[in-house]
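Hey, can you fold this?
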Amino acid sequence: MLLFSFILREKMDENQTETPAAEAPKKQTWSEFLETEQAVRVIYLIFGFAAIAMVMIFLQTRTDAICCGDWDGYYHIKWSQLLWENFSQGKWLPTFEWLPLTVLNPTDYADHHFLFHLLQIPFLWFFEPVMAAKISTIFYGTLAIFSVYWLITKYGVKHQLIWLAAILTCATAFFYRMNMAKAPPLTIIITVLGIHLLFQRKYVWLLPLMFAFVWTYSLFPLLWFAAIIWTLIIAWNEHKFEWQPLAYTTGGMIAGNIINPYFPQNIGLFTEHFWTKFKVGQDFAVAVGGEWYPYTGMELLTDFPIALGAMLIGYILFMPKNGKLPERATFFLVFASILVAAQFRSKRFAEYFPPFAILFAAFSWQAFTAPKAAELPEEFARELDPFFDKGEAKPADSFWVNVRAASVWVIGVSLTVVFLVSLVGFHKFGLEFQGTAESIAGNDHNNRYKRAMEFATGLDETGAENIPKGELIFNCTWDDFPKLFYHNTKHRYVYGLDPNYLYTENPELYKLLKDLTEGKVEDPAPMIRDKFGARYIFADAKENVDMLAKALDSGWVETIYEDEEARLLKIRDVKGEPSSPDDDEPETDEEKKILDELERTSNSNVNSDDEEDPN
């Protein structure tokens, strides 16, 4: 012990003594660096980044389309392209004229993903739009997942590879949604950076970070809630009001909304989003996308077993010590609990709850296993290790050391199996589990509606436009809009992106649209023309059959284009003879193959009969 005290004092003296000017500092060699704790962390980080990137690349390449679930990614990359076209010509923001009947009309439009759209632009410099969207999704999705792993490594949580495996298996829905070409990956990146600034108490940087968050996505209050949680934790532990987190996040939030290219319309759009989507205990006034509805209990258990297990571990291990709250563990306790509660309300939080559940478990485990007495830094302890008397290990101690080592391997192998199953699925021994790769591969192909929109924007044999430029098209389904907008910006549409945008602007018009598309109106065409100002109708080939049949039978409508994916109809100026769908339908490729096969079979039978009859 005397020797230990001497060496410790020597080390302290060395740190306090200034290096003479004549004596050059010793340069650390690569071999010496690789033995340091810092080098180990760097290697873990590089490995983690590579593993996450490979998973994202593998999943994103399962489909040729912009992934996944819905087609909003087509709107995002198209709008980024239109922004860049204007900027490259020295112009400012383009006018959004494609949804004139909604809250996104040319006067009131606000881009609440503005910074996200700007960050997609560099990818358009090197790739065509679909590939640009897919590569940007890989890039930002990888960074988002890596930021969670980086936070664990940064704060010295041990067994980093186990936590990496937990992140990679946290939820199939999480990785599915990370592959969508949307803004949530940036939300995770910004939130993790904000949490790091709170932990480091570098509060002033929260102001520009919140400013950027406001320009990126409408979920920016998430960082403000994080600041509130941290302020309350500091107030409990240190009996003081830490005002800076709240002040800087509030300042950034106000500045980001006011110093905004879409001010004041952005305030109105945020309010619309808030009131229509975040109604606790109430159903939506308008049927919205499936992502806004909650998971069933069975879906939660099958899609989020690791994330829910992490929450359970975090709750079990969480424990105040000496009347003090473990600050980081407490923060994630509250933050992740809010997200898991939101998860029961809406599937939209599938990209937020799982990674923060893993962070809650990691930091609770770190706080639970933290030694009561201060420990020496790992590098310093290694230097002192030869001077300690080892003594013989007790059998009981050796047993528990082996148990701990074995448990790490068991957990690691188990998570690896879960990772493989969640990634590619499992369909053996009567068990059916669809992996994330299979779900993504099942998405619709990239060119859906492309032929219909090429006709809509094209010319007939006389050189006249098939559909005049600027015409309003009555699209029967709101979620078709992103694809239509991507392929055709020559025309405008009745509604899209969110049905609430039409409902909020004109509730009566939305209710009429619902009656029309559900086939409840006997003569729909005149109402579409007179109430909506649309002279053309677009519908998926397999949807709105009743409405289209009534429109065709009325004599007001004629089919101008049809294939196996879509229909385009024109509302006549004067009522004419009813148009029979069977007469107007062009022969599809599938029908042509069937008819050709029947013709070949018929000819074969005729030839066979001729050969059998000698007369």
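Oh, and this one too while you're at it.
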Amino acid sequence: MARSSRWPPPGTRPRSETRERVEGCCAVDAAETTRITLRRIRLIADLVIGTAMMDPRSKSSEYGRFAWAAGLTGALLVSGCYSGLEMSAESDPADAGASDETLGGSSGGADTDGDDDGSSGEPSDPTGECGAPDVSATPLRRMTREQYNNTVAHLLGDTTEPAASFAQDERLGAFASNALATVSTLAVEQYMSAAEDLAAAAAEDLDALLPCDPAVIGEDACAEEFIADFGRHAYRRPLSTEEVQRTMGLYESGRESGTFADGIQLVVQGMLQSPNFLYHLEYGVDEPGELVELQPYEVASRLSYFIWGSMPDDALLDAAEDELLSTPEQLEGQAYRMLADAKADAAFGSFHRQWLGVHDLETLSKDPEMFEQWTPSLAEAMTTESERFGSHVIRDDDGRMETLLTANYTVANAELAAFYGVAPPQDVDEDGFGVVELDPTERAGVLTQAGWLAGHAHVDQTSPVFRGILVREQLLCQPLPSPPDTVDDTPPALDPNATAKERFEQLLEDEACAGCHIQINPIGFGFEHYDAAGAYRDMDGNVPVDALGELSLTDVDGEFDGAIELGERLAQSDAVAQCLAKQWTRFATGRIEQDQDACSMEGIYAEFDESDHNIQELIISIAGSDMMRLVRKAEQ
């Protein structure tokens, strides 16, 4: 089939020709170097802002606000001053959105628990039947820090993880998703600084970066070929002729005052600051509330950031160009291929790290006198365990939810194996991690892993509350309200002659607390064999551990003794299976399911059940669902 660029997609509105004018920013002398610097500033701002104004959603949208903020703030920052900005007569200041109020929002720490009505994971279908396809609104999202790092690693071969220093991501439920907070000036500066560093490093090895030889076809021709090729990967779709020419202006500016490499460096620097790179853009969306089918390149991007946490590869982009990403069968076929790629391990690990809340163990503190074994390297090993164990179950074992919750092994290095009191792994990977067999009387499955247990505990003692909440919210999808502001959440004082259950029972005596804690504490008590660092114990101070717990408001209610027994019980729960399907769907879409997603979720639940709760098959089902192919624009 002959290929043709289908960008921009049919049906989008004409793009505005609004342009900005940066004048009087600094006292500019006649020096040629200053003239060139300011020209580059205008070109980068033009690339970022011009791209935004070509988007019909630029007015009053988060995307438009970011584009103006990035272009204008970036230009001012690069030039070294912050005054003298003047808009052209035809520009609309409201469109620019560059006021202190607009830019001064959160830099990305907004959280929402993201759960629904707490119906034990049961789906809701307001119509009572499933007919025509439907999905709820998808907000415009920026890349998460992890997605940014993965993308520049695959795009440029840079593994320095520049986004590690970015502002914290927002979270929707358990997972990172930058869909709510306004972009701050700090975030714009961080994007700009990272782009400069990445571009400078990339320009040092043009042989690895370029798809052509400038000595053979000429520098300008090679630059244009590079822009088209690099843009196709960076923007996850082909560039329009206007975009190529706009970006050639950056190249020409760099080449005019320097070398061919300088021109290419400026191109990379500019494109890495574009909203087309930083956002998950979906031009298939037109009017608020309108259900539309995504363009093939947008589907490719959704698939790749779901299964790989990174940009599409050439095979996926080629499938989009050939319009082979429109049916569930086509999407599922691509998903099978992508799951076989080692890049999927990053997404497997990311899901389990976020789902279990072990994404920040390196910042966790423990009382050094009480927990001498707790070290930064041990905390890092615990995080890696959560990632590698989930990946091993999905890829190398039977992939079943039941195995995730009850396996008699884990993936550890020598330090973590010693912490668990078991033999070190024999067959290890390049990081020293391998499968180890666990003591079946002490640990089995993900709920007995030290990382999440340590992360859901206090500095000097366990927390049945934190641990019980994780099970309720992340495994049962039963959201709990935040405690009243007047509640004292200080944990009970340590008493070597009282068990944690005895000390925390007082929370059930307070009427303001009892309503929630009766659902939380009895689950959390089941983890008392694991201290605040996640180490196994039989004694709680001077008294034997009491790990008798109880499940209520589930489909597997009843008493259980310890976390191993709890894992076995939850492995048989339909509510847990549906909740796991929900969590993977949230991870895939970057949003929380709503009533309009009920029919899609019903299909996903049914296929997960038919597969005997195989998580790879769950991922395939999500990939082929309406939630991956269709979009309803969020109201602005």
